[in-house]
Amino acid sequence: IVPCQTAGKEYLEKIASIYPKKKIRIGGHSKGGNVAIYSAIMSNKKVQDRIIKVYNYDGPGFNRKIIESVENASIIEKIETYLPQDSVIGRIMEHKEKCEVVESTEKGILQHDIFSWQVMRDDIIKLENLTKSSETINKTLTNWLENTTPEQRKIFMDAIFDLLYSTEASTFGEISK
């Protein structure tokens, strides 16, 4: 378990205790979306019952053990995951929840930049399917990840995010330069 996931769960439970009568919405982009889901599925039943929605924007999924350990199926129904049509990051590991496909003006890994996602009026423009390249990348990553140890997966995930955040760039366009 990644320390930030555990910290996310502890933070969610702390906020829930500070505001005991309030409904809860949580979410995040990228690793933050992954932390939001983990926090929701691992929090206690009282907190889960107060959750209205969990929003995940192109965040990675989880290994099968975590997915299969979710006892409260109603929490899965509260999760909304959004992936750009060429998603790479959001296809890492598995998702039990329903995923919506979002139109992006970028290609490949650059679609991880949420500012490239298309919006019309007050809603995200949704597409029917992910692209063939996203499916190919997903199959390749899934196969590789299923044949690695948890420590190797942690190193891989940390390296991906370190790579993405190691520059002083503020957009994916700047990272690609």
Q: What is this entry, summarized?
A:
With 177 residues, the protein is α/β, with parallel strands linked by helices. The chain is 46% helix and 16% strand.
Question: Which key phrases capture this entry?
Answer:
single chain; five-stranded mixed β-sheet; two-stranded antiparallel ribbon; 46% helix; 177 residues; 8 helices; globular; 7 strands; alpha/beta
Description:
The structure is a single chain. By secondary structure, the protein is an alpha/beta fold. It is 46% helix and 16% strand. The protein has helices spanning 3-18, 31-42, 45-50, 64-69, 73-77, 132-146, 150-165, 172-176, and strands spanning 24-29, 51-57, 79-84, 99-102, 119-120, 123-124, 126-127. The chain has a five-stranded mixed sheet. It has a two-stranded antiparallel sheet with strand order 5-6. α1 packs across α2 (31-42). The mean pLDDT is 87.
